[in-house]
Amino acid sequence: MQGGTSSATDLTRTASRAVLWGFAAIVTVLAVTAVFLFINLPDAGAFNARVERIFIEHSDLTGQAELKLLEILALSGTAFAETLGSYRMVIFVLMVFASALLITALVVILMLITLHRRLAQLERAGIQVSSLVINRAERKVALNDMEFALTEAAVETLAVLAEARMDGDILSGAQIEATISGRDEANCDEAAGATRIKRLRDSLGNQMVSELLVRNIARQGYILAIDRKAIRIV
């Protein structure tokens, strides 16, 4: 158990560090890209400055057509400046949008890490069951405030596990099959008991609840991970 706890903690720390480093790397890339783009964009007033320079250098242009051409150039410079300003705004909006997506992704990842931590804590502690009532006649199981309608086979499997838990025993798959079928343990297959456990978990429905309620202890067997005093069979 301590090895599993240490492994889960190390995994969580590694994931946290990876998220932070990834976040720092993406922010750096976005910042460098934004600075590079804004620096390399031409000055919005550069075109107008060149037109003004043409006016100054060619003050002798007094013809109607020439003046009209210079006016068109001036208007083009103004249009260019406005277009370039809109480009800057578009780039700024895109950078803000990219940053918002990054922050959203980071929040989701942090939420997943937090959920992983809570699930790891829950797995280490097991389910806190204050009451487990097994009603064989009605084929129902009341787990705290949750009630499950199970098949007859699932109820029998859970009842066998509950009785073993009250006696402080751990049952192998073959022992579970022998107890339910009434056959000798030597004639029962381990896989048959494992199949009954799987069907019981499927009947309980909630994977997290079923996996933590019916625990599999390596090389020993199956056990209910609850306090024996909370069990009642009717």
Q: How many strands in all?
A: 6
Question: What structural category do the secondary elements indicate?
Answer: alpha+beta
Q: Largest sheet, described in full?
A: 4 strands, mixed
Runs with pLDDT <50, length 5+? 1-5
C-alpha Rg, in Å?
36 Å
Q: What oligomeric arrangement do these chains adopt?
A: single chain
Order of helices and strands: HHHEEEHHHHEEE
Task: Give the amount of beta strand, in percent.
Answer: 5-15%
Features:
alpha+beta; Arc Repressor Mutant, subunit A; 68% helix; disordered N terminus; 7 helices; single chain; two-stranded antiparallel sheet; 234 residues; four-stranded mixed beta sheet; rod-shaped; 6 strands; 2 domains
